[in-house]
Design goal:
The chain is α/β, with parallel strands linked by helices. 30% of the residues lie in helices and 18% in strands.
Length: 277
Amino acid sequence: MTEATIPHPDSRTDTIGKVQQKCKIAAGLFWANYAHLGAQVKDLEDAGVDWIHIEVRDGKYMDFGMPRGGFDIIEGARASTNLEIEAQLQMYRPTFDVFNQLKDLGVNLISLPIETTGEMIFQQITYIKEKLDLKVGVWAWQGVPTTAFEQFIHPYVDIIEYESRAPFWVKPKAGASPHTMDEIMTPTMRRLHDMIVAAGMEGRIELMEDGGLNAGNVAEFIGVGMTVGEFSSPLLKGPNGKLKPGTGEIAAAVGKLRRVMDEASGQYRSPEGKLIV
């Protein structure tokens, strides 16, 4: 891929970390059909998602034997969209060299795993923010206590992400997410929201729930302070398999979510982007 094929940085969107009334959609590519990646990404952008979310694995994290969401996937997505791209790192002790490569590939947001980044995590946040001039997030799986996020409610952090558990050894049903949504997830999101509010950063730190969201449950998460939801299965899978680009299927899936989310945002969030309590 030549540099000329990559959209110029000045033409890209800039929405991450700018909290608004409408809850945003981060489109995950976990369930993408990689034979048609560019077309799917273009369909997602045209349908109105807010950014692209890519899980970048090293093959060691969570004992996944094979890396997923590699740099080639980021390269292909970047050439196909003007949307911001997030690299959610699922790695053990990611390095400064990884961050530099992600910058060169056109990533806009790097989200670090709290559990496995290591003792250098805040130095790395500072490097990504100051040296690379990128946005920064931190994320963790369900089971990590909310207090672990306290030190990261900081001006250098643009988003906090909390991911619901997923029994990966169970084959998911057709068109369904592999994640399990436990009742504890909504009060956990509310506690994270309240921590952000208490720090005076409700307008500048996004709060994401990652995994298991759909049109049937997303409103309750918006009602407890979520500002962005990550979706992959609802946008890219259907009862008959992966949705095909160019058919209107992806646009219909995004539209279904957007209608529910916009209604809930109008009910629970103020025009200034604050939760109505």
